[in-house]
Please model this.
Amino acid sequence: MRTARATAGAAFCAALVLCGLVYEHPLVLGALCLATLAAGRLAGAGAQLSRAAKLCLLAAPLVVAINLVANRNGLTVFWRLGEVPPFGQLDLTLEALAYGGALALRLAVMVLVAALFGAAVDVDALLLGARRVSARSGLTAVLAVRLVPVLARDARRLDEARRCRWDGGGSGPAARLAVLRAICAGTLDRAADAAAALEVRGYATAGRPRRARSPWSRQDLAFAAAAAALIAIAVAGRVAGIASFDAVPALDVPTRSAELALAAALVVTALAPFAARRGNAR
Amino acid sequence: MLVEGCGAGAGKPSSEATLLVTRDFGRTVLADENRPDIRGADTVMRLLQRNARVTTRFGGGFVQSIDGLAGGQEDGRPVDWFFYVDGALSERGAADVRVGDGAAIWWDHHDWGSGPAGGAAVVGSFPAPFRDAPTRLACLPARSAACETARLALRRAGARVEDATAGSVADGRGPGMLVGAYAAIRAAPSARMLEEGPGASGVYARPSRDGRSVALLDERARPTRTLRAGAGLVAATRRGDRPAVWSVTGTDGPGVEAAAGALDQRRLGERFAVAVTAGATVALPDGGTP
Model:
């Protein structure tokens, strides 16, 4: 995936996100999570995806718990908490639990795809394309993206400097807040420096760049085709009424062969571009 | 009528609850379930969802539509779904009120532009409001045929009746009932609310101060006709979150007797309040049919 052109990789990630937004069915969302994890591993971004998956595992119980308390829908009560200010009569229902689970799975799809995008898609190349639409916007976006790791490095150095102080530099949230305050203050300085450097180098007079034409590789075509196929499958499944998910008022999660086939189709389609590993270089 | 408690599972289901769904102040009955599907210690919302097609707002806290009939605007007027538990307008959301044993749950879709902001009561759930706590009965005069008729109707309905004065009828411990000509009972604040119209009382009828006439109002609080000699009125009012006080009243003695005679489920059912004239019962708000 790293060898495919950025637009094809971005389209592939966008298609996965679209599938995650179109469906609420836990089976489909679970399949998308698995497909994204596998895609990340095959793209050589297993470590980044693992970190993202851990984040999802931490966030999921929170999402489920909030939904369980805030969502008053559902007919199947499994626990009554009685009068709980400020919520009133609080009944925990299977439907709210299932809906919270589906929300957590959807969140996981989004986070995992974002991690895949960050690790396997060349953001600079993508932003180069944006230059033709608006040079200044493209430049601003590139700078913003570039400044994030710079600021992170600054933070690490400042934190090391703090810890090297004779008194240990303090500890806990107060010390971390001091570092954050210094970073925020330094951000404006860095922005002013970057703006001055760009001005001196004549970026203000930059015109619209020429279109850079390069032939589509096999990888480009594979990922673009997979993106199109994912969207087609998602739309077709939706139109056919496959994998509907109703948690209100009563839980209705059909799990027939059609749903299983849809989930399998999404996984196979998402992983298909990785099948041809030969000739990765364009 | 509220079931307290917490624990695993759905809880013990309430028995003998009823569910009524109407529109336009009870004029059109959409669903009348004497034995609704109820499982566990259901809330009013869950009871409704088990027995009708419901859409909700605010995370399931408020009803937006029942069987496709939604709240919003009708003819430029705000309309919504309101629910009454044992004849009293609930001031809490349907997801916060549990259905008690024998509770009469009534959902009505109506214009809320002319009604009170809260604290309204209706007579259509008779006799449910009188089943639990003792009923304070105040008659003016103390011994009259209308008073005995009302007492008998309450006892037949299973109410425990305690005698009270007009001043103590709304002591907040249970429902109350005032029986007497309007000129006599208007000393009680609960009855005097009727003079202030639906915006204060929730009752679409306005007796005159001297009690000799009763103006019937439509759902926009516009007078439709005025009843005079021999006219009766059965209406319920509430002050704040206190139990309702029913006024069984009239323009004169025969009017009060006619009103007391209307104290039965058949004549009061599905009505917000009723006027009685020439032996006929008129549902309020008045549709204008003579």
Q: What stands out?
A: Chain A has a mean pLDDT of 88. Chain A touches chain B at residues 70-83, 88-89, 91, 248-249 (CB under 8 Å). The beta strands of chain A are 77-84, 88-93.
